[in-house]
From TrEMBL:
It comes from the Eukaryota. This is Uncharacterized protein.
Length: 204
């Protein structure tokens, strides 16, 4: 892969994605290479502050591992596709097997992003400096309540508490749920946070 040849010590923003107008033909259909990216970040020694993943097939566990490599991240954007619009059964992977679009914004990812209740007692919070979050999620798979709990865990306007738990306060949340809108009660609670100072953008 091309990334194997790169060393980018000054890299701060990384976008990996597929053109939205050519998803079926241009989407990467191989196996995500975790070691390649781990080696890249170790070799580069960069402090990534923004990561954008647009319309790519990436297992949730691999994204979590990728986030673990970048504790300085301030901005995270993940855009899923609306799976029902695509017939991947007819698409072969590079190794000849049938391509499967991996789930990304899963309950596991949302739980892992929780500031303190992430299921890993001895692990530090994932991306503790995160301030801006942007999700485009497939509504058939998206867990509204877990999303709300994760956002709420990172809404920490009291500076003293920020220092205590070691997690920055979220400043901006954008969420677009494909196929449907957010559940009304979750939308209402996010609007309450907006009135308290969180920048919230809701589309569906």
């Amino acid at each position: 892969m091309f990334v194997e040849k790169l060393t980018l010590p000054s890299l701060t923003t990384l976008t990996i994605g597929t053109d939205a107008f050519h998803l079926a033909t241009d989407m990467f259909k191989g196996v995500w290479p975790p070691q390649t990216f781990s080696d890249f970040f170790q070799r580069s020694g960069c402090s990534l502050t923004a990561l954008h993943l647009d319309y790519i097939s990436l297992p949730d566990r691999e994204l979590i591992a990728l986030l673990r490599l970048n504790p300085s991240l301030v901005e995270l954007r993940v855009k899923e596709i609306r799976r029902k619009d695509y017939d991947f059964a007819a698409v072969a992977s590079s190794d000849g097997t049938i391509f499967k679009f991996e789930d990304i914004i899963t309950p596991l990812l949302l739980t892992s992003l929780h500031a303190y209740n992430h299921g890993l007692a001895l692990a530090s919070p994932l991306v503790p400096k995160l301030e801006r979050l942007h999700f485009v999620a497939d509504g058939f798979l998206f867990d509204d309540e877990l999303f709300w709990k994760m956002v709420m865990s990172r809404w920490i306007p009291e500076r003293e508490y920020v220092l205590t738990i070691g997690v920055s306060c979220l400043k901006s949340v954008k969420i677009h749920v494909l196929n449907r809108g957010l559940q009304e009660d979750v939308e209402r609670r996010l609007q309450q946070l907006e009135r308290a100072g969180l920048r919230v953008s809701l589309t569906g």
